[in-house]
Amino acid sequence: MMPIFQSLKYPLICCLMVSLSACNNDKQRAEYIEQGKQAFQAGDYQTSQTAFNNAIGSEPENSAGRFEVAEVLAGLGDIQSAAAQYQTVIQQDPQHLQARLKLGQIYLLAAKFEQAEKMAKEALAIAPDNTDAMVLMGGVFAAQNNSDAAFAKAQAVLAKKPDDASATLLLAGLHAKSGKTENALALLQSFVEKQPGNVTAHLMLANLYSQLGQKDKAEAQLEALVKIEPKQLEHRKRLAVFLLSQNQGDKAEAVLRSAVTDVPDNELAKLWLVEFLANQHSPEVAMAELLPMLDSGADNYTLRFKLADLQWSQNQPDKSEETLNDIIALDKEGRQSLKARNKLARLYKATQRFDEAKALVKTILASHANDTDARILDNEIALAEFKVSDALAGFRTLIAEQPDNTQVLKLLGAAHLANGEPILARENLAKVLEITPADEAARLELVNLLLQAGEKEQATGQLNALFKLNPNSKNGLEALFRIYMAQKQWDKALQMAKQLEEAYKDDASGFYMSGLVYQANGQLDKSTVSFAQALAKQPEAVEPLTQLVKSYLALKQADKAVQKLRDLIAKEPKHFYAYSLLGDICAHENKANEAINAYQKAQDIRPEWADAYRHQAYVYLNLKQAGQALDVLNKGKAKTHNATDLVMDLVAIHHQAGDHQQAIALLEELYQQQPQSLAVRQRLASYLSAYANDKEGLEKAAKVAELLEKSNDPDMLDTAGWIAYQQNNYPKAQELLVKSNQLNAASLLNNYHLGMAYFKQGERKQAKMLLEKVINSKQKFAGLDEAKETLKALDNDNG
């Protein structure tokens, strides 16, 4: 058969076929784009990505079609995907002006100024007189603090197009930045008169009025936006946030309620109202408002997911699970059902129901093998179960397919950390910051890793990079404060605290940190002033209250501390923490009965808080009343649903009394509740190996300790190694104990254990060196007699 179009015998038919093919492709592409939009708005990003890929795949070299997809993605807020498509358009069509302009704007917003400048220059090379390209270059100059060049670009555009919106707004922004607020206001007011529907101009006016303290005028501009675009919910949200910042919560709520009334079919309006009620009132109030919304007969999946989240936040996993199952039943095998099943699997994981989580993920992947959420969760479960190599392999596969997926990059970094590879973890966080420089959480995590490695200069450099994007970053300032405190650079630490005080006047953090500097520097009187200021800002904050009491006690002013706490209790009778601190002071002054009463008050107010039971038990122990201490701890154990610290205190008391079987029973109960806790596993395994007194107990200890062998914690490796030694598996014991010693060579117990392992393996020189080290330390430890006997045997052999 002759291939189509090989001959020009029927040129008219050929032209018609080409035309018809293009028409069909345009129609098909439009259908795919619409599918992608709907899936994206429904939160089904996997399906939306497939649809957009199909839209492009029908004509992969059609840069116009790809640009259209990029525009849709940008409009949906998926800026990362849009940028990738704009880049491909540029590669396919070196003369594509609009793709460069759009990509340049994205780079500018993402603070990638070099890339933005490159796009602006390339756009100007294509079209030197293009005003949008000139404005983009002006924006780059402004971002680089080259105000003169930015002014020149804006004025050059306005000389060509006097009413150009972008240039006018750029010029107004430059006036405002240089302190010429009146010029900026006059320019914007004149522009709004000519173009009253320009949203950005109204926004800039609102910001300027707000900065000038003209709150009524700022509010009027935000209200104008609602009138200009009444169905654009973002304007109503912005107005509500502004009103809330002015302590006009009732008006803010009214704005959100009017959005629900004016745009009744928009779930987002209802969602924002529910979120407002949850944040400003309580989750219970939000749920009371939300539940009737679900009776409308509509599916309301967004609201149902919100209900599940609120139920989870209220520690109601059963109800959250029920809500998710309702969504699954409603949507059958649809996109929302898939999302709900993924969330349900996460709920199972969070509630330690790993078998159910794994089974559900397996079911999801059986029908949706490429579902990113399920694949991520599958590897998160592997990581939680300490199957680190499996998790690493899974995350690496995902990142090979999705190199810009920052969530996977972060998880891969966590897996590297779990595998004892902090440098690789840092490299992954660095990649995250290349993709999203404004990701503050990732940058701060990188800072922490650098600090752990002792690389304070690099950590400080990362924080300085953060301050370029956000000069008053609260988290960044607090992190730098901690660095200076650790280095005992009091002046610099105080400078950070004062900057926080200035930037966040209504927040307690800066004043609290100032108090910490004064306290650490021995300026206790000043510290009490700062802590009191912090409490005035946030009366419920426990940290400044604790430190204020500490400073008073250091100043030998216990009476002031007691009076402060009694005044606080008089104002807030339910302040359980104040009662607890009062108990601490009384206990410190040997006023046992008063301390016990104060702790009892704290327990009555907050029965689920473990510390009050622990502190009361310590008082009884100091009074040699172990039975009373046990009663208090057992009561607390029941009220707190087996709080780990309380169980460990009970174990310690039973151990001291020689009741090892009761201690083991408590640890086994805790292990059944927290099988994924390595700390609990270590305590149980160690105790079983020491006191089980039979082969079965030792085998159980070894079983419990299996996960400890994969840890990078020296104490956990030591526990696993010593159990292997007790089972006469000396090669395995030596391997694990050597790893432990490499991580913490100063550990007395590990040196003893490793010395004994060397002895059993016939490596007498190493054994003698380590056993001499522990004996010469003059410290007592379980096994000291055996160490002496073994060393004596080694000396006799040498003799």
Observed structural traits:
mainly alpha; 799 residues
Characterization of this structure:
The chain is an all-alpha fold. Helices cover 78% and strands 0% of the residues. The protein contains 45 helices and no strands. Helix 3 runs antiparallel to helix 4 (79-92) and helix 5 runs parallel beside helix 7 (131-143). The longest helix has 31 residues, at 11-41. The termini are far apart. Mean pLDDT is 89; it is low at 1-24.
In short:
By secondary structure, the chain is mainly α. Helices cover 78% and strands 0% of the residues.
Number of helices: 45
Describe the largest sheet.
none
What is the CA–CA distance across the termini?
99 Å
Give average pLDDT, whole number.
89
Morphology call: globular
Broad structural category: mainly alpha
- Total beta strands: 0
- The helicity comes to over 70%
This entry's quaternary arrangement is: single chain
**Proportion of beta-strand residues:** under 5%
Radius of gyration: 33 Å
Show unreliable segments: 1-24
